[in-house]
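Annotated sample (chain length 149).
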Amino acid sequence: MPEYAFYGSETADIMDARGLTPRDYYDLLSDIWCAGTCAPRLREKWSNDNKTLGQCSVTAFLMQDIFGGKVFGIKRPNGNYHCFNVVGDCVFDLTSEQFTGEELDYSDCTEQHREEHFAKEEKRLRYEYLRKKLTEALKCNTPERPSIY
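Output written by the structure step:
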């Protein structure tokens, strides 16, 4: 079994209707995340060595579509929020690795809403692209499994 470094990976045992866990989605998304799905303000720093950079909100809302639950945000020094998922007792952050060497505080965070995040058209378009590519990857990797939408 591969080792995972994202926050909550060791307890991310929830499963979707296909029997996939957040770890499975991390594996799939690792082949999809790219500079085009990265937040524009971070795009020139994005690299294959830091694939999760700038991917938090689009990824967290995509995981919410799949697993339900809520998206919360950790307020960052620049005033933006770093988004992660809470599904029942399961807390996971597929994009936490972008903060190498920094410990994030996942307690007492603010719930995030897609209406606010997707009011920015560029973010909504990045989310839609990520969703489309993930749906395609699911069809290619597991043809017997239905699309997530």
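Annotation: The chain is about 30% helix and 15% strand.
Annotation: The longest strand covers residues 81-87.
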